[in-house]
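Materials and Methods. Structural model of Aldehyde dehydrogenase domain-containing protein. The 756-residue sequence of Aldehyde dehydrogenase domain-containing protein from Carpinus fangiana was retrieved and submitted for structure prediction as follows.
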Amino acid sequence: MSPSKVSTLDFTTFHNIIDGKTRGSNSTHQGIDPTTKAKLWDVPIGTQQDVNDAVESATKAFKTWSQVPMKQRQAKILEFLDLWGQYEKEFTDLLCRETGKPRIFADQEVKGVAGFAGHPASLTMPEDIQEEEDRTVKTTYTPLGVVGAICPWNFPLLLSAGKIGPALAAGCTIIVKPSPFTPYTTLKMVELMQQTFPVGVVQAIGGDDKLGPMLTAHPDIAKISFTGSIPTGKKIMAACAATLKRVTLELGGNDASIVCADVDIEKTAPEVAMGAFFNSGQVCVATKRIYVHESIYQPFVKKMAEFTKNLKVGNSNDEGVMLGPIQNEMQYEKVKGFFSDSKAKGYKFAAGEPDVQKSNGFFIQPTIVDNPPNDSLIIQEEPFGPIVPVQPWSDEEEVIARANKTTTGLGACVWSKDVAHAEKIGARLEAGSVFINSFEKPSPKAFFSGHKESGIGGEWGSSGIMAYTNAHSMANDEPGGFIPAHVLTPPRSSRAPSSLASSALPTPRRTPLKSGSAKEWTLVDYLDKHIGLVQRRYAKRGTNESASDGTVVDRSGETDYSAKDLEGIEGYDSFQEAGKDIEKLIDIVWVSGTPTLQISYLLSLALMVVTYLPSFPPTPKTLFRVLGKLDMAFASLVTGKDLDTGAPLPGFSTDEGNFGKLGGGVTGTEKVRIKSLVERTRVVVVEVMNASEFEVEEEFESGHADDSDDPMAEARGDDVDFTDYNMDVARVYDRTLVELGDSLAGPRIGIIQDDG
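The predicted structure was written out as tokens:
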């Protein structure tokens, strides 16, 4: 349910927001309406105590907020945005007052909060799992802690929201410091957020130039995210070094726009000009230098000048206004310096005038300087105002080098009808964001960062949220499928009655082994060697006993193994011994969590069971335990899920429409093989258990030969007293039969009944 609009939110009084409450101060300052130079409302100046209290509250809130599931944190962001939408007009009015920007663009910024704060609410945190030789390494990302956001004055709402959204989605808490030039909208936005977020999760402190150093020096703030000038960014980075805070610095740029000879002049020239003058040039990623191919230079500059002369400069609510004032007097004076320098050097003005006209506000007409020299102030430095130089170019290599000859690298543009060629040029520009056939239009869905002195780290996009996290790697030496059985994960308990109750399978790996990996080859090598050993021991069965005439029984001649193959091999004396070795191999195969290996090896092991069984006197405990494990394994693989929990097996799809499916997994042919093996086994078990000379061979009390030190013995339930095996005979492979009957065409496989 969307929150209700609270009519008591006052847009004429402003406070710091600390620990969920509004707070004033003994000292105040005022912002300035840049259209009139008149003072606006009082704003409290935050103190060291305010910072300490806010950090304490944020630290306390972090302990719980960071543990809230990400989906629930994102739901809170969306809940706030529902509330935000009810106040768009009030915030647009307020933004016009503190920035002076045209209402149409103020309205766009207010609406844009939903994108910059809301995009992180659609993201998922990445997770990386790597298989190594003897372990699995899982990397997740955990929230950093308390974040300090130091925000600029040119887009006070968008750029604050662009820090708040990802920080909160990641699980951090945040303290926002708005610019002292534009404190009003940000303070009021954070005040509104208190209706949605828990106490201490989002706070705001306004102040003067002493407040930033308080945040950067505080030992309990984990990260500073700053948007602003390069000189201030360097100071912040130096201050944060004392406590090794994480920093994201989005700083200034001197962005180049390269115009190729094949462009449509009528359409392109106005776009290029708008890239330089949007928001009166007060955009960190605005076009600051324009390079036009010499073959179209004159007509292109002429068209830009015509468009520029028609851009209306005025107050926010003036009809048709496109450009507002410079936001503050400090920046106004700086921009005027570029005019006076260009005038003093005698540069040509294609549009605008060399002298900035006086007015009631900080207004400057948009101006184009025609072909100033490369070493001019207007080329070398960022004006951050409505004045831009334009130069011709003829050689592509040279213009790329000229565009890159700067200490900054925030954005760039390339204009050409040949998009592929424009992209090749763009790929060589040393800038964090390059725009093809468009002026600079950052998106909350795209990562935004600067090269060189334009910044450290980045924001936004699907990876910007990572800037608010620590990587957290956990190495898990879980059973890899080739570890000896005595160190395997103990089997899960089973609710199945009778002798099959001890037939639970061990817990498999969470992910299958990668095909062709060293780990998979190690497993295959282990299994092949040990299956071969079991087969040789079976081939030499009974050679440890003497016949009635005292000679040694040797059945090696019945096999394909030579005497040399069986040299030094101790043959099996009972199915209990063979079953114990086969059971351990079943456990190892199952723990691998790799269906492509499980299917083939389990079929081989099941065939060994039915082949070996008639060669020994019956040992029911071992027999039904081994068959029970095979039954559970085959039935699970046929369905693609754990039959006890219903969870998908490793390697099988969890998608709703493809649950339990595995491409290239249990094929129809393999199901037929399983069915044939099941039917054969049931017949053999009945024959063996009903043989006229039937006499159950005494088994070891623990159920396994030589396993007194086996930690799995108790978990397997080897101390179960089996006195009646009739039910177990009837239930051989019963789960597999049921699942095969559901998956194979034709009637359900019948249960073998013993008429005797």
